[in-house]
Amino acid sequence: MSKSTPLGAVAKFAAAGKTVPKKDLALQAISYGSVYVAKVAMGADPQQTLQAFREAEAYDGPSLVIAYSQCIAHGIDMRLGMDQQYRAVASGHWPLLRYDPVVRTAGGNPFLLDSHRPRMPLADYRNRELRYRALANADPAEAERLLGMAEQANEQRWNVYEEMASRGAEHFHPDARKEC
């Protein structure tokens, strides 16, 4: 099972549902301080996606753009992929963000949280995907327990992201490429 499989999803090697939160690749990359990082979902915000790609291309250093991409293993009607991307963002499952080290060197906060706080229940997003419904059909109590855990993990992640978005530039890792 992948470390990026969401909590509660049924996957090839997790038929009973994944019981730990997925890794946060964006935060891992941000911790370096010198990597441009963005999380995007074209179906939720095409302008933010375009802006992130433009900034990543313009950045003179490593860039990582993590794009939400539905897959057949999610168990959705693939024609509804853009709508599912919107739901992923609106439910807080996939927050949109950008981290631009250039902004920090100019004295600003390099972390920008581009999406709003979740405004849709996480269940509304998850119930449209077979990878979550399969567990709900097989073991409703366990599916409900894992949904609660996923909601808590979402809330914790949002609190971290909102705190980062409100920091001053001096609270971010200095640019590792900058000579002293």
Write the layout of secondary structure elements.
Elements: H1 25-30, E1 36-40, H2 46-58, E2 63-67, H3 81-90, E3 97-99, H4 101-105, E4 111-113, H5 122-126, H6 130-138, H7 140-166
Parallel strand pairs: 1-2
Antiparallel strand pairs: 1-3, 3-4
Helix pairs in contact: 6-7
What this model shows, in words?
By secondary structure, this protein is of the alpha+beta class. It has a single domain, classed as 3-Layer(aba) Sandwich (Rossmann fold). It has 7 helices and 4 strands, in the order H-E-H-E-H-E-H-E-H-H-H. Helix 2 (46-58) links the parallel strand 1 (36-40) and strand 2. Helix 6 (130-138) crosses helix 7 (140-166). The longest helix has 27 residues, at 140-166.
Number of strands: 4
- Average of per-residue pLDDT values: 86
Structural class determined from secondary elements: alpha+beta
Order of helices and strands: HEHEHEHEHHH
Largest sheet: 4 strands, mixed
Q: State the oligomer.
A: single chain
The helix content is: 40-55%
- End-to-end separation: 43 Å
How many separate structural domains?
Answer: 1
Unreliable segments of 5+ consecutive residues: none
Outline: globular
CATH architecture: 3-Layer(aba) Sandwich
Q: Note the total helix count.
A: 7
CATH superfamily heading: Thiamin diphosphate (ThDP)-binding fold, Pyr/PP domains
Determine the CATH topology. Answer: Rossmann fold
Question: Which strand-content bin applies to the residues?
Answer: 5-15%
Task: Strand order, main sheet: write it out.
Answer: 2-1-3-4
Classified by CATH, the class is Alpha Beta
Rg: 17 Å
